[in-house]
Each structure stands twice: as structure tokens, then as C-alpha cells.
Amino acid sequence: MSAASTTAAASRFRLRAIPGLAGPAPVIVSVTILAVVVIAAAIAPLITTFTPDQVDLAATLRPPGTAGHLLGTDSTGRDIFSRVIFGARVSLVPPLLVTALASAIGITLGVVCGWFGGMVDAGLSRVVDFLFAFPGLLVAMLAVALFGRGLTAPTVGLIVAFTPYVARLARNLVIQEKSRPYVEAYRQQGFGNHTIAFAKVLPNIAPTLLAQCALGFGYALVDLAALSYLGLGVQPPTADWGVMVAEGQDALVQGVAFPVLFPCIAVLLVVVAVNIVGDYLGDKLSGRVAA
Amino acid sequence: MLLFAGKRLASLVLTMFVSSIVIFGSLYLVPGDPAVYLAGSDKVTPEQLDALRAEYNLDDPFLTRYVDWLGGVLHGNFGQSLQYKESVGHLLAGRIPTSGLLVAYAGVLILVVGLTMGLIGALNRGAIDRAVLVIISATIAMPVFVSAVLLLTVFSVELGWFPATGGGAGLLDRLWHLTLPAIALALSLSGAVARVARASFVDSVDRDHVAVARSRGIPERHVVRRHVVRNALGPVATMAGLVIAGLIVTTTIVETAFGLNGIGSLLQRSVAQQDFPVVQAISLVVVAAFLVCNTIVDLLYPIIDPRVASWRRPA
What we know:
Chain A is mostly helical. Chain A has helices at about 5-15, 25-40, 45, 80-115, 120-130, 135-145, 150-180, 180-190, 195-230, 240-255, 260-285. Chain A is elongated and about 75 Å long. The two termini of chain A are about 15 Å apart. By secondary structure, chain B is mainly α. In chain B, helix 6 (about 125-140) crosses helix 8 (about 170-205), helix 9 (about 210-215) crosses helix 10 (about 220-255) and helix 10 runs parallel beside helix 11 (about 265-270). The interface of A and B includes residues 134, 218 and 275 of A.
């Protein structure tokens, strides 16, 4: 693909980012779902009638639709709707942090490696290859074993685990991009190395990286929820989707499924929606990329 | 060819070596006294701390301790568990059969389901293929703990077809107890294999030699097996290797969900209790399994796809 059509792809991306423009139906539905979840999480106190950890032992395991409890109550009488909505905050913000920081570090490393090549590239590529042997879940658990349960350790662990993926993608993209004529043109005009790499090349590969970030967010969300489910991440009684699934499993054994189902549905909806949006961005914007 | 195999094995050993340093050294990332960390609480007497220092040789220089530890590991001695007061090697040995069987079971399911879905999609373009694509997207997005809990809900609690917890005794009973956990893993992970398989098969079906084979009246079954599948297996093997290597960590989730007594649930308990000698040993096993899996795929690649004559994986 030529430099001209690359920039054209980039500007098409900006156009499409304007709300209301047409796209395939699943993408529109996904974006809507994500918007609703984010807004609901932001205004959680306004749309819930209970606090997420308000125990009511007189009203345990009320089925969904009970007056006042839209999604019913769990085995200690807490309102499931309130917990799902408040849980969105705890479940969505840390993966966002993981994605943002892993991307910032990974993109910087990747662009530097790809652009300058040589020893720096060889050295950092070795480190990155080495880190691939450590699955994200393992790094996160190692971090919990060292620094204790809670959100901080697994968040840091996942940043370490995800950075190599972003770095490798950014590096490969920069190497492809470096040989395009427009880079030489900027050089002829007297632009410096850093300016071309970060101000001219980076914006051109940004859409592809963004698509990868969307998928990375999905992985981070799933891994962190799984850690909370395992009792290693967010600690009860804090409302988190993973914690809710773990807590609901007691009721499940007694044959009551809904306390487990609603947080499961919440995780699934968000992850499916994020993947659809990420895939769409990836397909539309990065036809020239082999990750 | 021997040179290639030698290089791959050397890089495997080297990576393993560096991993062991990282895993062993990570203990020193924790701020403060390692003895206090190993004791698991601040309320210990100086005598207890001294005992811990003596037991783990904490007063020796880092390199000495690392070499001692590595020497032990190479002789199958992973140290003592802090919570079980038992040798880590013994703890692992008792649990490896359950986890090994689960990984093998799930691995077979993932391959069968992944390849079948990919093939169905690639051979029936149109509505069926679109349905396959939707199923693939849905399963790729399905977190393992969600599929585990959903399977528990439907098949153990509602229908009562499968046991909800425990490992069972005897091979058949064990397989019976491992069926839902294996399906949970396959449900979430076969999508990744199916996606690559479908793309690879689609690419292969469209090749001229397939059209020629069909035009010459070669039976469709034969065309599919010899000309479509055989040509497309390379990328599938790479993906399957990655997924199966990753299974060893993912079993933590299903083993905990289904109350199985394996390596994964031991890892979960040891992480929760900050039982570092056990965590260290299992991390090493996980990384080793991951690296060995990938090396095997790399070494098999030229046999799977003889066109890769240089014994090197295509980029």
C-alpha cells in the first residue's frame, strides 16, 4: 500500500470515529453496549437504590424482578443490580490502566527498536522474546504471591506481561513503515529522526495499534476477573464481577443460578463487544499488517 | 537439519536458565527482609527469623543461593512448602497425574473441535460459514471461569449429569470427573484454533491444485484430506502449540472451579498463602512446559510442512 493510501486510511478512520456514521450492525450494537455500561458505571449512585455491600439477611436470594431488586439479591441479601453496576467500576478501570500503560511503554519501546534497529533492537527483541514464555496469568499470580492479594499486584503483573505484545507489533509496523517513500521525503525536508518517528510515522500506525489495544483490554479484563474469581485479586465484599461469580457459586451448589449468571453475562457482554469493535478496527484499518 | 534442532534446543536451555534466574530472583523484588516475607507475617520472634534465614541460607550471597537452589531443582529437590511443611517435589508428584490428564483431555477436545469447525466453515462458504464465524467469535470471547461456571450450572446443578466437584478414582471415573472441566477449557480455547484453521483451510481450498484434483474426479473425501487439510496444517500446528502450552496455567481456573486437586489448584492456594517455594516450582514447571511445547512444534514444523525446507518457521 502506498503512503498516500495509508494516510487516506488514517483519515477515513478519523471520519468513522464521528458518532452516527454507518457501520455493520454488530459494531453499532457493541459500541452502544459499551457506552451504556460505561455511563451506567459512571452514574452508578444515581441509578441504584442500594449500596453494593448493603447486607439484608431478611431478603436473601430473592429472584430477579422482586420489588426493588431488579436482578434479585444474593445469598446475603445484597442487591445484585447495584453490585453489577458498581462492579463495572472495579472491573473496567484496572484493565483500562493495564491497556494504557502497557501500550505507552510497549509503543515507545517498539518504535525505538524498529526505528533505530541495531544493538538496541537486538537486545530489546531478546528480552521481548523471552517474556513471551511467561503467560499473563502466571505473571499476575507471581506478582500476587510476592506483593499480596488485591488489585495492585495483578495490574502491575499484567502490564509487564502485555507490554511485549504491543512492543513487537509496534516494532514490526515501524519497520514496514520506515521503508515507505514518505519517510524519505520528510528526511529530505530536513526533519529529525525523532520527529519523523514519533510525529509522522506513529500517527500512521496508530489505528492498527488502537485495534490491538481494544483486544488487549478484553484480555486484561478477563485475566483480572479470573484472578478475582480465584480470590487473588479484588477482595470481598467489594463488588467486582469476578468476585460476584466466586461468591455466587455457593448459591449455585444449592441450585440457585441467577447470582452467578448476571455477573457472567456482564463479563461476556463487555468482552464480546470489545472484541467485535477491536476486530472491526483491525480488519478495516490494518489490511497491510502481519502481526 | 541437525544444526537447526541443535540451535532450537540450545535456545530452549538458555531461555529456561534465564527464566529460572528471573523466577528465583523475583523474591528480591519484595521490599524489606525476605525472612519476614517467608514467615508470612510481621509478628515473628527474632529467633524464628534466624531459623528461617538458616533454613533458606538467606545470609549467603545471592549467587550462592541461586546455584544451591538450581542444583536442588536439577536433582528434583524444589525445597519445602511453607504451608504444608512438606517437600514441594512430593506435593507436585501427587498432583501432576490429574493436571496432566486434564491438559491431555482438553488438548484433544480443542484440536478436534477447532479443526472440525475450521473445516466445516472452509468447505461450506455462505450461511454455514457465517454461523461458524459467529461461534468462533463467541467462544474466543468466553472467559474460562465463565464457561466453567455455566457448565456447572447446566450440567451439574440443573441436569445432574456430571459431578460438580472432586477428581474421582480409577481411570474411567477420573475421565468422567474431568469431562466438564475439559469441556470448559475447550469451550473457551478451541475458538482460537478454529479461527486459524478456518483461515488456513479457506486459503488452501481456493488453490488451483484443489480445483484440478476435483476436476479429475478424485473423491471429495480424498481431496479434502490430501489436498486441503494436509497443505494447511502448518499455521494450525503453531496456534495449537501455543494454546496447549497455555493450558497449563489456565487449568488453575477450572481446577479451582471444579474442586480438582491438581497443580493449578495448588498454585492458586500457594499464591493466596504466599507459599513462595511452591509458587516458584510451579512457575518453573509452567514456563518449562510452555517452552518445550513451542520447541516441539518448531521441530515438527518441517515434517508437517516439507515446503519449509530451511527448517525455519515462516514469519
